[in-house]
Amino acid sequence: MDRSLFRANARLEKARLAVVLGDVEAGRREMQQSQHDAAGARDCWIAVGLDAQIRPQSSHPVIVAGRELALWRGETGPAKVWDDQCPHRGMRLSFGFVRDGTLRCLYHGWGYGEDGRCVSIPAHPELAPPKTICAGAHAVATKYGIIWSNLSAARAATVPEIPAVTDWRPVRSLYIHRSAAVVLAGIAAFDYGAPAEPATPAADVYVVTLGAQTQLLLALQPVEANKTGVHIASSGVDATADRLALVRQMHSLRDAIEAGTGPSR
Amino acid sequence: MTVTTDAVALGEWVACGWPGKVPVGGHWDTVILGQQVRATRTAADSYEVFTLDRTGTPGRQLPVQSRYCCIFTTLSEPKRPLPEISEFAEPDRRLVNSGCVGVNTSPYRLIENFLDMAHFPFVHTDILGAEEQTEVASYKVEHRKEVDEIWATDCQFFQPAASKAATGGQMTKYVYRIMSPFSIMLYKTVHGDPGRNDAICLFIQPRDETDCLAYMPMALVDAVSTTESMIDFQQTIFLQDRVILENQRPALMPLDLTAEIPTKADVGSVTFRRWLKQSGIWFGTSEKAAA
Amino acid sequence: MALKLYDYTLSGSCYKVRLLLGFLELTYTREQVDFYPGRRHKSLDFLAINPLGQLPVLEDGDLRLRDAQAILCHLANKYDKTGKWLPRDPATFGTVMMWLMFAGGEIMAASAARLHDLLGYDLDIAAARNSAHAAFRILDDHLALREIAGAQWIAGDHPTVADVACYPYVALAGDGGIGHEDYPALRNWLRVFRTIPHFDPMSGIPEFA
Questions:
Q1: Which one of A102, A122, B224, C106 has the largest count of C-beta atoms within 10 Å of its C-beta?
Q2: C contact test, residue of B71, B103, B210, B231 with most C CBs within 10 A
């Protein structure tokens, strides 16, 4: 089910209600907000974290293009990406805790099921929460060991396809104090210590082929104008010592991009 | 930072320090409602407050009152006097000054948090609430027009360790009293003396719309606890709230009642937001963006 | 021997000591010091106890110790019969010491930011936050490598005084306006730390047990 569209509809519902209650100004704002929810975000899949990094029963803060999100996982199952805001009093849900498959807000313990619907309000244990109370849930896909989210309601785009490789393993998430464009240029210019064949199967996704065996997948997460996340997976790097060396190399990649010194080992 | 043009906010008394913050002859600089001010301790119990311009030169002198363990001032003609809180004058009361703590949020998020019982089990776990007893029973809220205050009465909540003096769980009775957009207090059952109430205040110094200092003076009936432990208790509680307060989005208070979803337990908050909206205040609210 | 801790509940440095006292299941008395607003740690009485005017101070019989890191080492050295909290093996000891110094050094920038935001300390807040972020990145890098190696603690295969010393100001960073968004390995280490038996939370650490 299309959650953000649902949310837009819920907004629309609130707009109508406000108008019925005689608050025309509030109604107008709700209308605008519902249009924003339906069309505001770009229709693309953005890497928001490494799947292995989001442990069961945990909630984490993620920022995509200035927008605060909660990335969380229940006791089992795939990770979820929601707006980082409890509908009740605006508390960030990335501070929440997981209980019985629900994400509970830290402020008043309101519980939300995996579809985003509010299922419990502890201040009123007997009350069945109205179906309209809903956290802002976004589309999520887990592929190549990376969690991707599409924040738009249109969602015609598909998760970037990377052919031929099936054994991606998580490496590291980097947060680099540079714009996405500078980070992409830095990834292209970096000296990986082996002949590198770069490819960009999708916007903000970079695949580096190193020799016959090794591939690196680097997926960008625009955080702010001057900060970019890079979620990295590898194929063909399996021995622990090699994986440690790869993580260190990725730290050097980050440091080189921030130092602005161009190619570097 | 510039001083707000919100006439409603300017017409309130606001805290700007506490007695004894500096030695006699000393001063401190601070900000109220975007206005830089300097407070000087001219004698043991005497304070003067002046505005400061951008170069740090003193401007006009502001009214000052020293009450309830706080120094209050105002930038305009106050539309109401400071509230009367008789407990601070009772001879056997322990008056506790916990200083002030900075909080990056709207003043009204602070008031609303202070007014809220439903968060006790989750934010003040095993002190002011427990997960086994989360229900908020109905309570009464009224706007007392003659003093223009909001009172919430008949409030009660089960508390495992309600105060420094508590030795076990108890059903604590609360009365809340919103005295201005920047001040609230509560009366709660005294441990071991249900006929009397502890008086606990929250006075807010709004430095800017989402930049506040919170003062929490108390007038307690407690002959046993040390002052250190009473301050400790209050600061411990407040720092638990502060994590919540600084992570509410948006930080500015939405006065549009459809922006956030209240329940029956939030009737105090709903009344408060309506009262703010009717007052015409916009400092610290998200409504002016649309206005 | 009677243990006495000069303590301020909201101090992250005191919290380091309280944590280890709890992990070691040691009983102790607390002397609460009105750090704020009373500034009793700068009073003449307290300067006679610690001339640096800092908390915590631990008294263990006739021994009086300042500096949270030194106190952690003393407690582990004297009372931890397993030897795990302060490992003596050459492969681990140096690493534990290195991160212990890091906790008392670079990470304290997060404490400075917290004192600024909470209690209005007059300091360069942008510089404090930047320094804290730089320190957090170094620890996050280290913990990410530890994860790859199949480990979850700062050194060795169990928690040590290095973890105890680093935990409070990393966990309390939000109090000083420092987010954990950029540190996935650090976030998971914080979660694991809370599972240590006898862990006690502290105000400002957003956690529901």
A1: A122
A2: B231
| Structural domain of C163 | 90-193
Domain annotation covers residue C35: yes
Q: Residue A20 to residues A12, A15, A17, B5: CA-CA distances in angstroms?
A: 12, 9, 5, 33
**Strand ranges across the sheet with B64-67:** B14-17, B70-73, B64-67
Task: Give the CATH superfamily of A169-259.
Answer: START domain (3.30.530.20)
- With CA atoms as reference, the chain A residue closest to C130 would be A177
Beta-carbon-side half-sphere exposure of residue C192 (alpha carbons within 13 Å): 20
B78 inside domain: no
Chain B closest-CA separation from residue C36 CA (Å): 7
Query: Can you tell me the distance from the alpha carbon of B224 to that of B192, in angstroms, rounded to the nearest whole number?
Result: 12
Residues B249, B105 contacting (CB under 8 angstroms): no
Note down the domain range covering B249.
86-289
Set of chain B residues whose Cβ sits within 8 Å of the Cβ of A133: 261
The per-residue pLDDT for B189 is 86
**Encoded amino acid at C58, one letter:** L
Q: Residue A164's pLDDT is what?
A: 74
- pLDDT band with cut points at 50, 70 and 90 for residue B215: very high
Is the same domain home to B34 and B136?
no
Q: What is the pLDDT of residues A47-57, one digit of tens each?
A: 999 999 999 99
CB pairs under 8 A between B and C: 63
Taking contacts as CB-CB distances below 8 angstroms, the residues of chain C near A248 are 145
Cβ distance of C181 and A223 shorter than 8 Å: yes
